[in-house]
Amino acid sequence: MAAAAVKNGQANQGDIMENGPDAIESVLDEHDAAMAQAAQRCLMAALDHSRAARIALVDEAGHTEGAPLIELPPKALRFMADVLGLMAQRKPIVLMPQKLELSTQEAAAFLNVSRPFVVKQIEAGRLACRKVGRHRRVLFEDLLAFQKQMHATTEDALQQLADQAQELGLGY
Questions:
Q1: pTM, whole model, 2 decimals?
Q2: 35 vs 20, 41, 46, 54, CA distance in Å?
Q3: In angstroms, rounded to a whole number, what is the distance separating the alpha carbons of residues 112 and 100?
Q4: Does residue 57 have a pLDDT over 70?
């Protein structure tokens, strides 16, 4: 299954992998962002107070009679609230299945590094992959774990540099 990029309210299969992050429309207009924020607040209030598992759709006049009911698990409602919160902040959203396998080029694009860097990490055993013929495939889950570990290593190195600068009185 390919990655789905949410663009103008529609999911476009493979957009993020084929066209890169620039393919995603990242800014909603003020009205849409405000609507997303209001919807998020309503969902969160419903989840906090009533443990609602249903959402009633309303027409533009606000009438609920004859409106269809959608039954969703509370986790799905929380997910929708999280998505609406990101939309209200005008942040781009990309949905990817956890079992998604990426090529080394796609993994490099996700990490914002070069493909040879990804290959070196694989060959050094720091990033897991499987071979499909001559091609390497990296599980998205493994890529996320590697990214998290990479960020932790970077943070530790920066902290050590800051501590060393403090010890030397460099004013950092």
A1: 0.51
A2: 28, 10, 16, 20
A3: 18
A4: no
